[in-house]
């Protein structure tokens, strides 16, 4: 079987990953390569294993920053043109764009699109149209996402939870009097809320992640650095592990309905309880054993969730993480691709 694996072109597939979507695509590459002939289409600066075919198309970085949608559309049009030339059996699409599904309809290529985000305007109409095709299929990373998308898709939306290699994150805990929050630093991730909540419980907070909104960082986070908050930069996989294993709690104060929250599973796999808002997929993923979800969407309730999470036993947290193994995710995806090819 020949699989075309399309990544979202906005960020490269390379460690340290900019976000969960990039980590998700990376985790599938080697598994697909073991079971099929796979070609990866991704950002030009992606780090793809040498034994896997990698096809990309260059674009100007500065133009991409100024006109991301135009650059990404051009990139994906070139991707689909290349796919047409290479007689693939099936496409696994992870680009947050209507282009792959529309082309699949036109040229009768079996395609699975994984829904990584809540629905928004430019994808709703295309989903309604393309889901009528017998060649186009959709799956979601959580039941929360599937429920939001179902009104726009004329087919059943299967749910395949994201997974991680649990052994990569498990290790001896050396807990210190500190909290931890990590991810892309943008307003939607709510690091400023995590800063305020950690101050309320009186425990220092370490923050890590790439800064994608400099004005937000300088205005809402930088004033607190050195006053109970430390910014550690964009950490490697190994550095994240060490931070998680030494933190009493991992905070995810997101301002949107998080579609899955791969970072919460990474935290739980380290034995570190999660404190987060009760929205999006967090009730599915974190549940009651992996952490504590705030009773309301405000800083006071988040501070209460942090305090309550400190009482959880790390063994229970680890057990919750075991619900999301990478092997199950990969096996379900390859089975789905075989089914629709």
Descriptive overview:
The chain is of the alpha/beta class and 341 residues long. Helix content is 41%, strand content 15%. The protein has 14 helices and 13 strands. It has helices spanning 20-35, 61-66, 68-85, 99-107, 121-130, 143-149, 191-201, 214-221, 237-246, 262-269, 282-285, 299-309, 314-321, 326-340; strands spanning 2-6, 37-41, 53-55, 90-93, 111-115, 136-140, 158-159, 179-182, 205-208, 229-231, 249-252, 274-277, 291-294. The protein has a seven-stranded parallel sheet, sandwiched between helices. Helix 5 links the parallel strand 5 (111-115) and strand 6 (136-140). The protein is globular, with a radius of gyration of 20 Å. The chain starts with a strand and ends with a helix.
The helicity comes to 40-55%
Please tally the β strands and state the result: 13
How many helices does DSSP assign?
14
In percent, how much strand structure appears in the residues?
15-25%
Instruction: Provide the spatial order of strands within the biggest beta sheet.
Output: 3-2-1-4-5-6-7
Whole-number radius of gyration? 20 Å
Largest sheet: 7 strands, parallel
User: What class, by secondary structure content?
Assistant: alpha/beta
Q: Given the C-alpha coordinates, what overall shape results?
A: globular
Low-confidence stretches: none
The H/E string reads EHEEHHEHEHEHEEHEHEHEHEHEHHH
Arithmetic mean of pLDDT: 95
Rounded to the nearest angstrom, the distance between the terminal CA atoms is: 8 Å
């Amino acid at each position: 079987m020949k699989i075309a694996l399309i990544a979202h072109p906005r960020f490269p597939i390379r460690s340290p990953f900019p976000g969960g979507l990039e980590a998700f695509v990376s985790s599938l590459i080697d598994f697909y390569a073991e079971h099929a002939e796979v070609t990866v289409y991704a950002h030009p600066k992606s780090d793809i294993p040498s034994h896997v075919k990698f096809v990309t198309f260059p674009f100007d970085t500065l133009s991409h920053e100024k006109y991301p949608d135009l650059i990404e559309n051009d990139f994906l049009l070139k991707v689909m043109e290349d796919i047409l030339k290479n007689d693939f059996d099936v496409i696994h699409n992870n680009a947050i764009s209507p282009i792959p599904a529309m082309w699949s309809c036109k040229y009768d290529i079996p395609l699975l699109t994984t829904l990584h985000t809540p629905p928004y305007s430019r994808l709703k109409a295309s989903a309604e149209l393309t889901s009528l095709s017998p060649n186009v299929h959709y799956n979601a990373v959580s039941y929360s996402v599937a429920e939001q998308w179902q009104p726009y898709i004329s087919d059943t939306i299967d749910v395949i939870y994201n997974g991680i290699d649990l052994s990569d994150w498990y290790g001896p805990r050396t807990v210190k009097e500190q909290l931890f929050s990590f991810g892309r630093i943008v307003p939607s991730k709510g690091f400023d809320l995590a800063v305020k909540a950690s101050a309320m419980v009186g425990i220092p907070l370490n923050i890590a992640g790439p800064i994608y909104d400099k004005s937000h960082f300088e205005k809402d986070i930088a004033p607190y650095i050195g006053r109970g908050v430390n910014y550690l930069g964009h950490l490697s996989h190994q550095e994240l592990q060490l931070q998680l294993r030494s933190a009493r709690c991992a905070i995810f104060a997101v301002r949107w309905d998080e579609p899955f929250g791969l970072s919460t599973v990474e935290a739980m796999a380290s034995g570190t309880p999660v404190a987060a808002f009760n929205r999006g997929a967090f009730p599915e993923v974190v549940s009651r054993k992996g952490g504590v979800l705030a009773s309301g969407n405000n800083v006071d309730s988040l501070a209460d969730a942090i305090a309550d999470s400190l009482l959880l036993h790390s063994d229970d947290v680890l057990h919750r993480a075991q619900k999301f193994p990478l092997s199950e995710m990969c096996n379900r995806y390859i089975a789905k691709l075989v089914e629709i090819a």
